Amino acid sequence: MRITISGKNIDITEGLRSAVEDKLSRLEKYFTPDTIVNVTLSVTKKRHQKMEVTIPVKGNIIRAEQESDDMYVTIDLVEEVIEAQLKKYRQKLVSKHQDGGSFKQEYLEEEVEEEEQEIQIIRSKKFDMKPMFTEDACIQMELLGHSFYVFRDAENGHVNVVYKRKDGNYGLIETD
Known about the structure:
Layout: E1 2-8, H1 14-24, E2 36-43, E3 49-57, E4 60-68, H2 71-95, H3 105-109, E5 131-132, H4 134-144, E6 148-153, E7 159-164, E8 170-173
Parallel strand pairs: 1-2, 5-6
Antiparallel strand pairs: 2-3, 3-4, 6-7, 7-8
Helix pairs in contact: 1-2
């Protein structure tokens, strides 16, 4: 595994670099040596320590992002999230008999634990989408108490999604 570490609003000290490499080196048992792992460490205005890890694997991306008041705690959290995602992704590959790409063959051939389950849709909803503006969709999302809201944009007719971000602001996903 090749780990690339970059920083935003933070100097990457040798201690931080060592902590990231030590923690993420635990993931080497899953990946081939040529797998690239991109790590971005940052500090926000509120003094929160944030870490983002992105691992491109055969047409998909395994990504984790965590934030806390201590960068070393954040590093631990990200590693746990990545391992959980890898177990789910492995289950998908094994159940669909797909090639693992960046994954070691030994990892894919290990016995799958009983607790790992396929993704199951347990509830489905249908609703009419009346055209509305983005601001109206945000208000509707807040009124419903949801973290996202799907709507048809009144300006262009496309189906879009507004969502509540961790920082309290809103995000918009636009479709073509």
